[in-house]
Amino acid sequence: MGSSVKNVIFDMGNVLMTFDGPYFSSLFTDTPEDAALLQDALFGSTMWSLLDSGTISHETMTRYAEHHLPERLHPNLHACIARWPDYSVPIEEVNDLAIRLKGEGYGIYVLTNANTRVMEQLGHAPALPYVDGYLVSADERLMKPDPAIFRLICERFDLNPADCLFVDDNEDNCIGARVAGMHAYHFTGNVEELEANVRLLS
Description:
The protein has helices at residues 21-27, 32-41, 46-53, 58-67, 74-83, 92-103, 119-122, 137-140, 147-157, 171-179, 191-201; strands at 7-10, 107-112, 133-136, 164-168, 183-186. With 202 residues, the chain is of the alpha/beta class. Strands 3-2-1-4-5 form a 5-stranded parallel β-sheet, with helices on both faces. The model has no long low-confidence stretch (mean pLDDT 97).
């Protein structure tokens, strides 16, 4: 690409913060069977992507999930919707890397497919105070892996795509970033390998 990496753009879910729908569902139910029902109606539903896209509201998501659950689980659903972000915890090693990279002069950004309550989750990330900017799908009505959202973050923060490394746990999202002209790294949990990739491209 003829340019070295000067900016690292992190995904949120399962990169900076954990996201585990089956686990969250289990916290608000009493049996594995009920947890599976809640997971399928909420986090595992296609409507969850529409919530992240900004095209439906939390109220619509709730009504849809209620329709797909027995009435006895409606209180569990409401509690889960209200409180699941409390159980999304920082992935400390990635946050530490982001903070170190910021201290070395890299630009640090976040690009996430998430709903309008994103700060209830991202707000727990230790790296957040060091972030130079972030873009959230629900706010923009654009979602990864659409190359348009990668172009938008570059336009918004005056970044050259060729200077950016995008980090995501979803390979399709990495492909979208590459189409937009960025470097991309598919994160599978190996932080040392991620850091080595940053160094290699810098």
